[in-house]
Design a protein that fits this description.
The protein is mostly helical. The chain has helices at residues 2-7, 11-36, 41-57, 61-68, 72-100, 102-122, 126-153, 160-192, 198-222, 224-239, 251-256. Helix 6 (102-122) packs antiparallel against helix 7. It is globular and about 50 Å long. Mean pLDDT is 85; it is low at 238-246 and 248-259.
């Protein structure tokens, strides 16, 4: 079927379609490899569910803050607090990553994200919002960078650009999907589950991120030893220039530097 479609198209169109199909194939291959590698499966799952969960409540976040009683100034300040926390804690996570490895840093950031989201989602007043965003600032904004660092440090040098592009593509696609699903999820809550009161319905929206983040934390903790053992098994390969094999260039290409 694909060949029939391509043959009916002009050469330029066939080239673009071929490039698109190759891109889809490559990104699906990256995702499958992430899931099949014990070093990467759970950290990547954390980011996948966090990206989807955060996007699901993104359209309603500002309205929720106002519903809880936050002023326009409060909304600006809580955002500033979260960003400042990310800025201050970033170097600390870097030091933790260098000293203890990726996993403790990722788990700390994921717990911060889950607990901060929980406090924010249950907030009865703006003071609780400040507390929630302070906790979020400890790790939530750094979580995406830490997981990317984990993937990069265990991937062969020649394949890191592909890993980074695949990771960013996955995160962006899931955030788009989450926002796309928001109207359907809101319809389920309001018209099927009959959660018609605004604030309770918004709390459920905000709670989706909390549930997804706690799922990720539990996965990381449950498989802590498995991830560390997988990292230890592959440590020698990474030191010698090995890593995630599927992302390495062929020897003839890697040796000449040609593309």
């Amino acid at each position: 079927m694909r060949e029939t479609v391509e043959n009916s198209m002009p050469p330029l169109g066939r080239a673009k379609l071929s490039a698109l199909m190759e891109s889809v194939h490559t990104h699906s291959r990256i995702a499958r490899t992430f899931l099949s590698d014990e070093r990467f499966r759970d950290p990547v799952l954390v980011i996948w569910v966090a990206s989807l969960g955060s996007a699901l409540h993104a359209p309603v976040t500002t309205y929720y803050l106002l519903e809880v009683g936050a002023s326009h100034m409060d909304i600006g300040w809580v955002g500033f607090i979260a960003s400042l926390g990310s800025l201050v804690c970033g170097p600390l996570y870097g030091a933790l990553l260098d000293k203890k490895g990726s996993l403790p840093a990722i788990v700390t950031a994921a717990v911060s994200c889950a607990v901060g989201c929980l406090i924010r989602g249950l907030a009865p007043n703006p003071s609780w919002l400040y507390m929630g965003y302070l906790v979020l600032g400890v790790g939530a904004e750094n979580l995406w960078t830490l997981v990317l660092s984990h993937l990069s440090r265990h991937t062969e040098n020649s394949g890191r650009s592909l890993v980074i592009s695949g990771y960013l593509f996955q995160v962006t696609a899931l955030k788009i999907l989450g926002k796309f699903l928001y109207p359907a999820w809101n319809f389920v809550l309001e018209d099927i589950l009959l959660v018609t009161d605004t604030l309770p319905r918004m709390r459920i929206h905000m709670g989706m991120c909390t549930a997804f983040c706690f799922f990720g934390v539990l996965r990381l903790v449950a498989n802590w030893n498995i991830i560390n053992e997988a990292v230890a098994r592959n440590k020698t390969n990474v030191t010698e220039g090995g890593g995630l094999a599927m992302f390495a260039r062929p020897p003839s290409v890697a040796s000449t530097g040609s593309t």
